[in-house]
Amino acid sequence: FRTIDDIDCAGKRVLLRADLNVPVREGKITDLTRLERLVPTIRELSEKGARVIVVSHFDRPKGRRVPEMSLEPVSAALAAVLGHPVMFAHDCIGPDAEAAVAVLKDGDVLVLENTRYHAGEEANDPELALALSKLADIYVNDAFSAAHRAHASTEGVARHLPSHAGRLMQAELDALTLALENPERPVGAVIGGAKISTKLDLIGNILAKVDVLIIGGAMANTFLAAKGVEVGKSLQEAEMHDTARAIMAQAEARGCRILLPVDAVVAREFKANAANDTVAIDAVPADTMILDAGPLTVAYLAKEVAKLRTLVWNGPLGAFEIAPFDVGTNTLARAVAALTKAGTLRSVAGGGDTVSALRHAGVVDQFSYVSTAGGAFLEWLEGKALPGIQALTSLRGIALPT
Ligand code: 3PG
């Protein structure tokens, strides 16, 4: 697909699909990463004299004007991060948007109100896509993290305008391609999380691509139990034992080694600083639950990771939100960061919880690449085609029938 290298954008109106869906708690933005990562594209377009019209969804207002889901405060935060004034329009189409676009000068930046205030966004309504496209001459998509949604502003609009990938989109795709499609081998993956049932497609796709698969979190309990290990009161999916066994057989057939915990930190209560013990994996007391990988496991995993050239990480090893059950995740994440710094490992992480786990471990800036995407990262790991990316390659400039 084309990038912004291929645009002569001086004086042009550029509709930039960004992902301004930042995390907010009690009305405050808690993490500016998504805004910071947009800066290169916005700055480059603006410096080249484009009139930059930023469009995004925010949260899930489901077609209603929910005031708490306005992008106005986010546009102010974007201005601060950019160090450049940002204008705001109270709608993403219609008279407000048109008037705001009409007064733009070369280099100006405008943010349009939440696209999901219109039900047509999620429905990928051709009329909304057409109305958005009429605001601009060129479409640039920099929202990899929303590319798994076939919505009017991520997919529909690309049918009407010459469409290009922004710098963040490029960076995400380059990093992900180097990690799984074309990695330096051996390549491994850390897949954690609570349930196998939600990550079946992901595991199936990853198995075919990696040499080593490290299973962490409660998901590991299901694999252990499927092998006949007594996991006490640990969170696990009893109905997935056959599936877990099938996955292990498939991995073996493909020459992919699955690594499971050899010891665990167990407790009787799921709460911060609960009394806990470290036990061998075949000695989990019946009245306890596994809340973290044990030190032997972490040391063994760190040794295995040291043999890899590429690692993809999604999901924590334990209940990292509550101390001291964050130790396993923290320790392995720091080992990965050290190998990355030493230049022997390319490390790529993504998916909601993963980024908070790495931030908690203090290494979020020390991986080779940390994706801004949650759901889109997972769908990419599943091997699915993402509609927002397909639109950049196949639908560019093809008008919908009216
Ligand atoms: C995300 O935060 O993962 C993206 O912005 C997509 O948001 P959504 O899950 O509400 O579509």
TrEMBL record:
One of its GO terms (molecular function) is ATP binding. It holds the Pfam family PGK. One of its GO terms (biological process) is gluconeogenesis. CDD domains: Phosphoglycerate_kinase (cd00318). Substrate binds at residues 19-21, 34, 57-60, 116, 149. (2R)-3-phosphoglycerate binds at residues 34, 116, 149. The keyword Cell inner membrane does not apply. Pathway: Carbohydrate degradation; glycolysis; pyruvate from D-glyceraldehyde 3-phosphate: step 2/5. SUPFAM superfamilies: Phosphoglycerate kinase. Its main location: cytoplasm. It catalyses: (2R)-3-phosphoglycerate + ATP = (2R)-3-phospho-glyceroyl phosphate + ADP. ATP binds at residues 199, 321, 351-354. Its EC number is 2.7.2.3. GO terms for cellular component: cytosol. It is found in: Cytoplasm. Keywords: ATP-binding, Cytoplasm, Glycolysis, Kinase, Nucleotide-binding, Transferase. Monomer. Belongs to the phosphoglycerate kinase family. This is Phosphoglycerate kinase. It comes from Lichenicola cladoniae. The lineage of its organism: Bacteria, Pseudomonadati, Pseudomonadota, Alphaproteobacteria, Acetobacterales.
